[in-house]
Each structure stands twice: as C-alpha cells, then as structure tokens.
Design a protein that fits this description.
Layout: H1 25-42, H2 49-56, H3 60-67, H4 70-83, H5 93-96, H6 100-109, H7 111-117, H8 119-130, H9 134-147, H10 152-161, H11 171-194, H12 196-199, H13 206-224, H14 227-239, H15 242-248
C-alpha cells in the first residue's frame, strides 16, 4: 500500500543506523522488549518514547540514536512480533496430510486461542495493520513482502504440488490473495476478541464462528482451489460422519 501521501524521493523519516555494532544489540533488544509492552498497552499514538526511556533508565535520545524515530522503533517492534508467529507449514503433520485448506482451518480456529496465550504480538500486528500512517504502513508491507514471515510462498507451493490450487493463476497472485484475505479475516476474529461488541453480538455461540470460518474457506476455495478439489470435498461432506467433517472441512 504505497501510499497517496508518500514521496519516494524523500528518505522515510524513521530510517536509523544501518549496521548497529554488536555490543549495542543487547541494548536495542531491551528497548524493543520495553517498547512492545508500551505499544501494546497504550496504542501507537499514545505510547511515549520518553516513558520507554524512563522505564529503561536511559536517555530518550539514546532510543532515537538506535532507531531514528518513534516510527523506526515501532517498525522493529512490529518485525519482532510478526517473526514470533508460526508459519503456515508449522501445523502438525496430521493436519498437513489433510491438505492446504485443512491447514488454513487449523490456524483459523486457533486465532483467538493464540491471542489469549500471548496477546502482545497480536495486538502489535493489529496496530501495524490499522493504527499507523501510510508511510510506515508502506515499510511494513515491504517487510512482509520481502521476508514472507508466514511462509506463504512455500505454503502455496505445497498446495500446488498437491493439486489443490489452480495452476492457471500466477503464483504471486495466489500468495497475495491468501495473504490479504487471511489477514483481514483473522484481524476480524482478533478484534472481535479484544472488543466483542465491535464485530459481533455479546454471547455469540461458538457454532456461529465455526460457520463463518467454513463460509470464508468455501469462498477462498472457489477463488483459488481446483475444481476437482472442491467437488471432492463436497462429496466427502455428504458421506463423512460428523466427527470427521470437522477434520475435512
């Protein structure tokens, strides 16, 4: 999302030193640790670099020396948060053998559980997606595209090798569709957990969320899945016992 307000001829204001000395890495790590908590608890705009410095007992200017600006600090915080997430193909073997869409289902049903286990990196990812300006968001998108922290490219190749994904589409297009749709759908699940009244009614039954996940996957299958794979799943659902349908989507 390179931005209506971005100017490629101007260096981003948060660029800091390119090659931190090895002895400074420990200090940088301590700063990022503290900043993660502050950003997660207060949000991007309300978090104060001065408060982070005071907690660490260092000068505010020391943080700017390492990261260039508040934006540069948040970018490093975002990178650490996203790198802590599992990749698609980190799903258990018994899930992977069921195929591409079974792996997606596995991660979707665990979205809220993972948020409760470690809410800080998930809140940071939400702030990066929705709580930053266009210039910083452009750098976040560049990082996601360059590093592929979720292993989406390898995951899509896994689906292609299994014959579950269309081979008449450019692989980059499939990767983009999976990234965009999964990110937005998981963000909705995460935001609903953080603020239940925002996306759903209080006390919504788990069956409703299950139904929405299956509807989402059905739409994604029709977009990028092969016709035989879709038909095969329809036939399986007709004959499979109820307990098995959960595993087979």
């Amino acid at each position: 999302m390179s931005g209506i307000a971005s100017n490629l001829s101007i260096s981003p204001r948060y660029i800091g030193p390119h090659s931190p000395r090895p002895r400074s890495e420990a200090k940088r790590s301590r700063i990022v640790d503290s900043a993660m908590r502050h950003f997660a608890e207060h949000g991007y705009h309300a978090a104060r670099v001065g408060d982070i410095a005071a907690e660490l007992g260092i000068a505010k200017g020391s943080i700017f020396q390492h990261f260039g600006s508040k934006d540069g600090l948040f970018l490093e915080v975002y990178k650490r948060a996203v790198r802590s997430f599992s990749k698609y193909l980190d799903a258990p073997v018994e899930v992977r053998v069921q195929g591409f869409f079974a792996v997606l289902y596995y991660w979707l049903v665990r979205t809220e559980h993972m948020l409760r286990e470690d809410w800080i990196p998930y809140r940071i990812s939400l702030l990066g997606n929705y709580g930053t300006d266009l210039v910083l968001r452009r750098e976040i998108n560049r990082f996601l595209t360059t590093e592929d922290p979720y292993g989406t490219v390898a995951f899509v190749r896994f689906g292609l090798d299994r014959g579950e994904l269309r081979n008449d589409m450019d692989i980059e297009m499939i990767v983009s569709i999976v990234d965009w749709t999964m990110e937005r759908f998981q963000d909705a699940l995460l935001t609903a957990e953080l603020d239940p009244g925002l996306f759903r009614r209080q006390g919504e039954m788990p069956e409703k969320k299950e139904s929405r996940i299956r509807q989402f996957l059905a739409v994604l299958q029709r977009a990028v899945g092969t016709a035989p794979a879709i038909q095969e799943r329809r036939e399986i659902r007709k004959v499979a016992p109820a307990r098995l349908r959960t595993k087979l989507l």
